[in-house]
Protein: Signal recognition particle receptor FtsY
Organism: Schaalia odontolytica
Amino acid sequence: MDAFISYLQSPWAIVIALAVAVLIGVLIRVAVSSRRRSPDDVSLQPQVQAPAEPRSDAPADAPRDEADQPRAGPADAAEPTVEEAAPAPEASASSIERPEPLRGRMERLRERLASSGSLGRAILGVLSRGQLGAADWEEIEESLLIADLGLEATDTLMEALKRRVAVESVTDEARIREILREELLALVDPDMDRSMNLERPQVDGSTKPAVVLMVGVNGTGKTTTVGKLARILVAEEKSVILGAADTFRAAAADQLATWGERVGVDVVRSEREGADPASVAFEAVREGVSRDVDVVLVDTAGRLQNKSTLMDELGKIKRVMTKQAPVSEVLLVLDATTGQNGMKQAEVFAEATGVTGIVLTKLDGSAKGGIVVSVQRALGVPVKFVGLGEGADDLAPFDPRGFVDAIVGSAQG
Ligand SMILES: Nc1nc2c(ncn2[C@@H]2O[C@H](COP(=O)(O)OP(=O)(O)OP(=O)(O)O)[C@@H](O)[C@H]2O)c(=O)[nH]1
């Protein structure tokens, strides 16, 4: 016994004990990391990678049609798994930002619409000349067209202004301003329902997340808008998952992950550039359903190489997502500065996906606010949000009155 005790006190025994402890530590690490890679263990890490294809255990209502199967190209042929992403810097509770609440945003951003105000100033300047001739009306028409109001809306507004200015024979500037405000507001249509449909649908007795698909041409601000919208939803205390189905540009997924991290929202993504977007979208909704979140927001690429490829791709993304939960909203992101070009794109996207609302970005610093009216008229769907800057909270629900007031200016304007 004494010999054993003295052996335990010897340096060799200490070395051996340390070696055994290290070995046990290594074995525990290996066991934990292999468990994390298990396909069924979807971790609640800041990011979740999408599999190459929907999971093999996808429910019976998973896509069946060949055309609806997320693509499994050579790079996509890996075994379908849900892997934990390379650990993203973990967002500690203290580093998570508190986004600005919705109320008052349009008010705060009102000054950003100042350039749209140049339209109001130009028209008011002419209208208050009194005794308007053909050249004056042409000047007004030109201003409206430059502001992207579109031909039809310009004609409607011109007629209304001519009639009212003649009938009321007004020269008083405040009254002219009031007439212009009323007529513009009628064009913007304050009665349209601009709320986002975030009601969680019931399917076969279970409550699914509200699914929102973002579409639009590259560069319009889709990814940024998904990030800003996530912040709005977080501010409204909703649980959210983002889907990075813009697999065309690898940086888009990183960009989205950064937006997500800032407000503690997870992102479903694929590490492979060019992975099948429908697969990522499918997985994002599946993840949202399994975590029982309130909203799944999915970003897409929207390259407009050719109309039929784009329509096929977006149509497929939407069909595949619908296998998991119905798509509640398809928001088309349009860059206000692209004017009538943007209108043509809008029509293609609307045809492909059935757009339910428009987000007009970059309205700050754009004198082309008239596009609000023309795009609503062309698609018959409302502008629901406006982007008014590059800041994280520079997205506001579109408020027709605030918008028209910004264009027409105050009485002192
Ligand atoms: N001034 C201003 N800039 C904006 C607004 N919204 C987005 N942007 C900027 O527009 C640029 C493009 O935005 P992204 O979100 O990357 O555009 P995208 O449509 O996702 O582009 P792809 O990923 O290439 O399809 C970025 O520099 C954004 O900061 C806005 O409302 N105002």
User: Anything to note?
Assistant: Residues 102-188 form a domain with the Four Helix Bundle (Hemerythrin (Met), subunit A) fold (CATH 1.20.120.140). The longest strand covers residues 327-335.
